[in-house]
Amino acid sequence: MENHRPLLVLVSLLLWGCGGAGEEGVEQAQHSIHRIAAEDAVWTVGHESDATGGLEDVAQGAFLEPGVLAFGDGGSSQKLYIATEGSREVRQVGGPGDGPGEFRRLLWVAGEGADGLRAFDAGGPRVQRFSREGSFRESVMLPAVPGLQRVQAWIVLEGGHLLLGGTLEGSGLPTPGTPGLTDELGGLAWLPPGSAEVGEVFWEGVVSQWVSGTMGGRPIAGGHPWSPGLRVCALPQMVAVTTRETPEVTLFSPDGEQLGEIRWEQPRVPLTPDFVEAWAQEVLATAEAAMAGPFLDFIRSAELPEFVPAIQEIRCDQEGRVWVHEFPPPETEVNRWRVFRAHEGVLEAEKVLEAEVLLPPDVSLLAVGADHLAAVHRDALDVQRVLWLPNPL
To answer: What is the number of other CB atoms lying within 10 angstroms of the CB of residue 275?
Structure first.
């Protein structure tokens, strides 16, 4: 099997488009540096011999407790997995479909209270509730959010607050064939536990960016890999939000109050034609030859942003830390995550920087637990596996 994944990510976008402490009293932090190798993994999930039968598209997951990880496979299997490191047991739940406990587009899994978990199915859109043993409990369709369209669930806090997001009404795609960049504006709102009434939209910003160009000789509008994007993650009693574009993370409470902000200095990396061309050639190295011409046509014809994003991804742990993966410079193999302590108030990042964690260059961080990090590795045949790495913090 050839590795079409990087190209499919872009093509799928194209198809879709057709009081606390402030600065006072906080001293400069002394941070530690930790390097983790793939050989340090204590367990690997995703072999053909285990319950997964191999993984295609690992969905966002979470550690339910130390040594117990829940995650989904948004590929053809559309299953939810509960993996226990101590017993080496992997339980599977669901499958493709619209029935109870089934999924059409499984995007994330998270814990709920002491004995449950939730899984978001964007094909509903709905949130399904299960016991931690995998028994189905109920399915809840997402309510409408005034002022937002294409509503989806982002995360759930440990108290049960569900974060909903969508695009602002009237915010859409550019006209195919009309040059330029179009910002797609979105918002976030909370759905309190046990309530059917959504709170007011407490955050608005750029959730994605669209470009117009030609592909295969015809006008087309779609997403691009350097979109500002929106990233969120759940801390115990707050949510961390970033649009990726600038080096800052904003912290909000479950009632939508802004509690703090972590910001740092970072030189912006220009999105030069050479940078774009090198990226395109790297993607095409593992794609079908027939896609090369149309793909390069689109990339070269589209007007792109001036800079690459500052942030690639963020993750949160239950100890109150935000893990930030900055957008890697061109031709780098450093997979560095900077770990910040969440604080109320506006703080320079250096004052709350606890650690730098260097992961293997060919993995992406799935979830952070008390004892382990779950990381996704993709091999040359496009098969994914989940590595259980030690958490150095």
So the answer is: 17
Over the chain, what is the mean pLDDT? 84
Instruction: Please write the tens of the pLDDT for every residue from 175-230.
Output: 776 777 888 999 999 999 988 899 999 999 998 888 887 777 777 777 788 888 89
State percent of the chain over pLDDT 90. Answer: 55
What does the pLDDT look like over 362-384, one tens digit per residue?
899 999 999 999 999 988 777 89
Listed as own residue / partner, the contacts of 276-281 with beta carbons closer than 8 Å and 24 or more positions apart are: 276/304, 278/330, 278/331, 279/225
Residues 90, 106: Cα–Cα separation, whole Å: 18
Are 74 and 61 a contacting pair, CB within 8 Å? no
Q: Do 315 and 376 touch, CB atoms closer than 8 A?
A: no
Asked if 382 contacts 365 with a C-beta cutoff of 8 angstroms, the reply is no
pLDDT tens digits for range 242-281: 999 989 999 999 999 999 999 888 888 888 888 887 777 7
- Which tokens sit at 393? 């913090």
333 compared with 354, residue with greater pLDDT:
354
pLDDT band at 24; cut points 50, 70, 90: very low
The amino acid that residue 49 corresponds to is: S
